[in-house]
Amino acid sequence: MPIDPSVAVGASLGEATFSWTPSDVLLYHLALGAGADPMSEVELRYATESDLQVLPTFGVVAPNFKQTKPPAVSWPGVEIDLAKVLHGQQEITVHRPLPTEATATITTRITDVFDKGKAAVIVQKATAVDSSGEPLYTTRSSIFARGEGGFGGSRGPSASVEMPDRVPDFVLETPTLPQQALLYRLCGDRNPLHSDPRFAAAAGFPKPILHGLCTYGIVCKAVIDGVLGGDVSQASGFATRFAGVVYPGETLRSQVWQEDKRLLVTCSVDDRPVLTDTVLTLC
């Protein structure tokens, strides 16, 4: 079915109530590589119940954390083959540090559909509130659907984050594990692109790729640890654009510039860009 922006834009994707526990938070952190140094007090705040803190990026995955089936891209005005889909952009703003345990309700809608010619971009916004109705966080995300453009829609904005013209203030090296995607899929994303070599080959990749949201979480943690001393309460948001794929086992190289209430970040593998237009916003 062709994408129909007149139906898709503004469409509600419904409301869902979900819960999480400290065990879910611990699994998420471990799937990002937390606890690599089991003697580190900073790492143990991610990997044990004692003084547990929650990365802001957990809010992005929390609504679907218990999912065990591959996702489907089937929404009003949108019907896309999963093999054509890549994550485009992701942003979260937390209105206060996320609790280690909560019940929340999230409402989601499609805010834009853009026609990039050979691809389509679908943008969503979601707002989560706690059981008393108080705001927890807001997310904005986009998916990039290869081969689904050409329907005559707007190309959309092309704004980018300008990085300082100087050497970075921090350079952070973060290795990933060969089995990283197999761990991370337990956090609710069972897309076979990240686990099935045959599915990945059919999608045009030599082997399964790491989840974009896994890279997103790993880099957020790396910046919080490397610049903020591991204190997640100093971060109020994290936004990025996915610029390239990561294969499990590769090492991420994040360059960070301090600028007022923002930390500006680029991430690459060797000379291959992975995350661009990346900003960690400070409280």
UniProtKB/TrEMBL annotation:
InterPro entries: HotDog_dom_sf (IPR029069), MaoC-like_dom (IPR002539), MFE-2_N (IPR054357). It holds the Pfam family MFE-2_hydrat-2_N. GO terms for molecular function: (3S)-3-hydroxyacyl-CoA dehydrogenase (NAD+) activity; 17-beta-hydroxysteroid dehydrogenase (NAD+) activity; enoyl-CoA hydratase activity. GO terms for biological process: fatty acid beta-oxidation. Residues 18-147 form the Peroxisomal multifunctional enzyme type 2-like N-terminal domain. Residues 163-263 form the MaoC-like domain. PANTHER family: ENOYL-COA HYDRATASE CHSH3, PEROXISOMAL MULTIFUNCTIONAL ENZYME TYPE 2-RELATED. Belongs to the enoyl-CoA hydratase/isomerase family. This is Acyl dehydratase.
